[in-house]
Amino acid sequence: MRKELNLFVLLLSMACGKDSPKPPEATLLSFPLQNSECTTGVSLNTTTSQVEFRWQEARYADTYELRVTNILTGISITNAPTTALSARVPILKGTPYKWRVTTRNAETQEIAVSEEWYFYNAGTQTTYPPFPARLLEPASGASVVRDINNEVTLRWTGADADNDIQSYEVYLDTDPDPQQLVASPSVSITQVNTSVAIDAVYYWRVVTIDREGNTSDSGVYSFRVIR
Length: 227
Fold this sequence. Notes:
InterPro entries: FN3_sf, Ig-like_fold
Oligomer: single chain
Shape: flat
CATH superfamily of the largest domain: Immunoglobulins
Number of helices: 1
Number of strands: 19
Strand content: over 45%
CATH architecture of the largest domain: Sandwich
Protein name: Fibronectin type-III domain-containing protein
Radius of gyration: 24 Å
């Protein structure tokens, strides 16, 4: 009986001492650079060039999955998981894209996702529209509380490969297609306070304008005011 008990304790201690699989960490992106114009693509024809995407080795990662999205159409290209730290993808010239890399580990179901970087694939243009503003707060679908002035703060971030953003237009409405202009801040201002009513759903978007008159639309986020 004592031998069986000792064997049970030994097996239990071995099981408890076994390390759990470590989830993969997110990789750091290298190229194409964030908010840049990529000019290194290899021309395939008049409309398409092949761009090499590169990232860094991530701890506890077995494979990497690259996802490249055409910002204008929303169409994505997702490469098969690879052990390499780069991948070549044919994409349209003169078009804005965003890209990210997902890391995986065969010993766990957990994944990690890198930052998402924006860039323009070089074309014949001499000037590029701004990248669509990224809406930060309130997050889409969030429930928010008004401040003592019965206002909420709308925050976003903007970028342009030409670095010539001039201003923004902020639209907020209870209509899913917000057309009511509530602010027109300059490039140095990326947040505004605006009055809202309690127990209502609001929709908001930001239009970015550069010095050449080019524009881009962030798309619409919504939030609910709960009190």
